[in-house]
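Q: My labmate handed me this sequence with no annotations at all. I'd like to see what the chain might look like in three dimensions before we decide whether it's worth expressing. Could you predict it?
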Amino acid sequence: EHANSVRTCTISGDPHYYTFDNSVFHFQGTCTYVLSEQCQNGLPYYRVEGKNEHRGSTHVSWTRLVKVFVHDETIELVKGRYGEAKVTRSGFSVIVSTDFGLMVSYDMYSYVRISVPYTYQNSTCGLCGNFDNHPGNDFRTRQGEVVSSDVDFANSWKAPGDDEPGCEVQCSGLACAGCTAAQTAVYRNSAHCGILENSTGPFAGCHQQLAPGSFVDSCVYDLCVGGGYQPILCQALNVYSSQCQQNGIQPQSWRRPGFCEIPCPANSHYEAQGTGCPSTCVNPNSTDNCPLPDQESCVCNSGYLLSGRVCVPHADCGCSFEGRYYYSGETVILDTDYGSFATCWIRGPGSYHTFDGVMYQYPGACRLTLAKVMGSSDHSHFMITVEKVPQGPQGFSNVLKFEAEGTQVAIEMASSSTVKVSDRNHFLQIKYITYNEV
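A: Here is what I predict for the chain of 438 residues:
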């Protein structure tokens, strides 16, 4: 019955851990820890590590870095920096997914979700627990001992290689927040964290599926640490809202002007139920058959596509080369030994071509730097490029350009087999010269 299902572990706030088996604990160490790992033979191996940091208070910590080890590769997701390889954006998070069902998402601030398929039941270990449907034994140390102390449990999963001094935990559990009775009363009211458990509030439809009690406790904790700072409240409410959406339940609108509203960048707008697979320059049809649930996000306006993190017109999309996407104008070194460069360059009307010859329906063209003298070499500097440039409303022509010693030569190889050579001061036409197309 669980063949197509997944179980999810989440880490949020400063940090609150919700294991695969729904145990909840609060741990403040700032070392690097194994969040989840495949611990039994016979299944594809993975390991997810998390590195915490202090933000304003040395009593609590927040997730700063997530590392995913899979298929002999390491993918790092760092707070405020968006990853590249094997990483996609969904809503306001970045997601690493694998062919065997592991999915790791990070909002690049403090909210981490790790989902594994049911084939990994009884086969995981780390701070997310062992996924055996028995929360009572989740505090199993690396040595295999079940302990009662969340600190002893979490410390045992410190990852090797983190030598940061003083990263050990300084306090334990909810007591780290140091909430007073007055603070607790204020932050539990319906204007703050209490909105989560309000039976007539925007989250009421989710209560039966996901009990809000522990989320309220975590929210109050975070506000005590943050002195009631509203963005922290918004983050805590968003964690519960996201969990509801992951369970197929859409909360009522809870963001409003002046309260947790989300400003969106140019050429995009906010949607509470945006697609989990936004249309991109690489895959304009990604919304079709999207496997991810709808979630709040900034969605590109009609006529625009995501190019990295920016919504651009179709004509301003970049190039795909050997499985990687490059922005329009971006240059990449293809061969460090011989100094070969490739530049993604889009201009003018016409068809769209990538570096490796794939044609898209968008306007633009690409330029390839064939050879160039690098850096401050003592050799005479030159650069040879080949361009595919628009010619008329539909066509293209190939142009080979040579630059050296202040001279620029362009050889246009037109469809009539006419080759034109020009520099700054001369124009020379040579008819019917046979050439090999570059």
